[in-house]
Structures
1.
Amino acid sequence: MYAYTYCGKGDFRLLDKPRPVLRDSRDAIVRVTLSSICTSDLHIKHGSVPRAVPGITVGHEMVGIVEEVGSQVTAVAPGDRVTVNVETFCGECFFCRKGWVNNCTDPNGGWALGCRIDGGQAEYVRVPCADQGLDRIPQGVTDRQALFVGDILATGYWAAQISEIGEEDTVLVIGAGPTGICTLQCVLLQHPRQVIVCERERQRRELVGRLYPGVLTVGPEEAREFVRDHSSHGGADVVLEVAGGPSTFQLAWQCARPNAIVTVVALYDGPQTLPLPEMYGKNLVFKTGGVDGCNCAQTLELIARGKIDTTPLITHTYPLERIEEAYDLFEHRRDGVIKVAITPRSEK
Ligand SMILES: [Zn+2]
Ligand SMILES: [Zn+2]
């Protein structure tokens, strides 16, 4: 089968590999019907993910059809349409029982697919801990609607959940990339009084304005003043930092009112400074981290009910055999690209 493979720093190649087989009684084999490219894949390509294992098939955003399951798998069966979770988790350890599945202590726990073990930019993928890692797609929900459930939408949903948003709040979302827009949609589900999106690129600000009437947009230069003018207590009540730019962490806490919650979802290229003397007395609450991606059943339900729609993020579609072109477009942000969908290799 075709599998897009991390061969070394800067070197991804479409290789012909054997189809994966069950290795553990909790595994499932999934035929990939749609996948996508994530910024984290680019981080692997650029060599900035040290735990990524050369030789693995990349890709951790996909949906598909279950082909085969191990003897201990009970939640899904062959023929089921499923979303695949970016995180592998056992469901039984201390962290899993608390819902902190990102820190699952299983050897494959956390982000393994498409990083430490073979992922889904391929025709088939082996999913460990399949009872936890797969969720059935409700009837009437298409692959394109479900594509982001296991990764960026899981992240947005989790970020909005932990941010303790109230109906009187002004919420600032920094970054209107794919994860930023998923986060925005999940923030809107909580009906805060005002939502402001800060984004550097004009095209993306316009997209937000078009898709979500009522949401205000602003560039980073004007953000501090703008947020102050549009909130009741000198700054945003809740800030979600989803941009990960060189100065967006500073912007996040500077735009927050005293005693605000600042949720940092972004992944930075380097360490960030927490200037405690400057922020002394502001009494902020910081929440940080990687998604605890155990909310897919809820987000699928919200998609089925028409409450979440991430399909406008899919701006381009390529078949697997042309994935190289898709990467090139995504990496260089050409042609207004937000997300690329990868369809199975075309029939010859
Ligand atoms: Zn990702
Ligand atoms: Zn666990």
2.
Amino acid sequence: MKTHNTARYILILAAILIGCLGPAVCSAEAKKGLLVYASGYGSTIEIAYWIKAIIGIEQTLDVKKFDQVITVAPYDYVIIGRNAKQETPSPSVYKFVETYQQDLAKKQLCYFLGCGDWDETMLLKVPGREVHQIAGRNYLYDIQEKFPAIKPVVIGGFGGRQVMPSLQGMDKLQIWLLERLAKEGCAWVGLDIWESLVPERVEAFANEVRAKVLGLPVLDNVQQFRGFWNSLQPGSLQEPSKQKYTVRPYTVQTSTEKIFFSRSRIRGDLEAAVKMLSEWAQQECCALQEQRKTFFNVYYRPVKNISGNDMVIHVVPGTMPDDPGNVHVSFRSYDKPDVRKPLEEAIGKAEQMLWADGRKVEGR
Ligand SMILES: Cc1cc2nc3c(=O)[nH]c(=O)nc-3n(C[C@H](O)[C@H](O)[C@H](O)COP(=O)(O)O)c2cc1C
């Protein structure tokens, strides 16, 4: 009888302990997140709620504008999202990171950007500036340099959406200017709404947050959330058959008065591509000359001396989250067609080397 009673007391005590500690233990395990964003014309807001849906509405993830936040202290992780403007995530992101940098350095942090161009092998040459890298995650390089104590766990650059009739005065002018200056042409010409967003990138980003920050399994059926982006608006009111988004080819060769541009993709990883490019550069009697290196791409400027003149080839190999297992490599010469022939031949040799042994990935 006595043993029976003791067992009952132990059971009751255990139940009380579980009752008291259970929720505390559970809530200690569930991470609390903040997704903080700003958006010029609204598409970054759509992306923010899309990411929240993939992470899971059962997760604690507050979605707030920058000026709704007075502290980041209650959160275990913070996702910062913004539309790109003038080739940066714009000043509000810098201000937010500066304000909360001590707290943020102790938390898991992720950055994402909505932007006009997703192709991280892109370069831009405009009057008054050196040739430089643009697009996608390239825009997040500077903020990581400025705040080295804050090391993001996941970064994303997705492409985005632009509704031409909504653009305000100076914005309209800037976009108009870019149309005229871009050496490789602008995809939005003739459209009211233009989209460059790569949905697989948003999905890969949110799944990476699930796995790396929250320790959750990645979602295989992640496409079920595309309703956050798909819409019935036509690309052009004058000509509704025009698509908002035309999938840009990965394999391109363009030769105009302004540029020789060649881009393709090969099976393999960044390290293997860089090794082949180094061999090619040695054979062409020039060093690769690294300009900038990240975990997903490298920008090189090998210089070839032709008839006493130093001429630059711009080379960018890079990997893309939406095309795993492949490396994309772009080559550019901005010299005039009559003098750049030897550079075009050198680029041809590099591509022969990269594409050999069935490495070239055809299609698109
Ligand atoms: C004035 C202006 C400047 C822009 N500058 C860039 C830029 O430098 N690089 C880029 O990739 N996209 C640029 N974009 C494209 C936007 O980042 C893209 O359309 C984004 O999806 C807009 O998001 P939002 O609707 O939240 O403002 C620019 C757009 C505008 C209107």
